[in-house]
Design brief:
By secondary structure, the protein is an all-alpha fold. The protein has 3 helices and no strands. Helices cover about 95% and strands about 0% of the residues. It starts with a helix and ends with a helix.
């Protein structure tokens, strides 16, 4: 309302000045002419529209601002949720990498144990076979000595029989 009062005062001051000047501007502010009253009606109409529309415009602007505010809050909530999910997935990835590294270390240790046991088993097997070979050689030597002895005894007995 204050704006329309100031505008009305400005129009009246301009009308007084224009009336003294004459010309088309003087006709516009001639209080008895129709042009002046059309101008007054237009100013009143504009002031009324501003007064009535201000509530609707501010309401629409407030509604839009609230809508934007709620969208921003929703975006912030979604961002925080996404950051939480990202942190969870990064933690899960770290855990999975640590678990994979632990599994790899365990597999390497198991492979080293199996390799050492295989080497020990191979060495024991070779030692057993070597011992078996030595035992067979010893048996063969003993059998050969027994055969030589038996042959010598047989020859001695046979020679003794011939002599007797």
């Amino acid at each position: 309302m204050e704006l329309s009062a100031v505008a009305g005062s400005a129009v009246l001051l301009a009308a007084g000045k224009a009336a003294t000047l004459g010309g088309w501007l003087g006709d516009l502010f001639d209080f008895g002419g129709a042009t002046f009253w059309v101008l007054i009606a237009f100013v009143i109409f504009v002031a009324f529209m501003v007064w009535k529309a201000r509530g609707a415009v501010t309401g629409a602007l407030d509604a839009r601002a609230e809508s934007i505010r709620s969208e921003i809050e929703e975006a912030q909530r979604l961002r925080e949720e996404a950051q939480g999910l990202l942190a969870d997935y990064q933690r899960k990835q770290r855990d999975a990498l640590q678990e994979a590294e632990a599994m790899l270390r365990a597999a390497e240790e198991e492979a080293a144990r199996l390799r050492a046991r295989a080497e020990e088993d191979l060495a024991a097997s070779l030692k057993r076979r070597e011992q078996q070979a030595l035992d067979r050689i010893a048996q063969a030597e003993a059998a050969a000595q027994a055969e030589v002895r038996n042959t010598a005894i047989d020859l001695a007995v046979s020679a003794t029989r011939k002599l007797l």
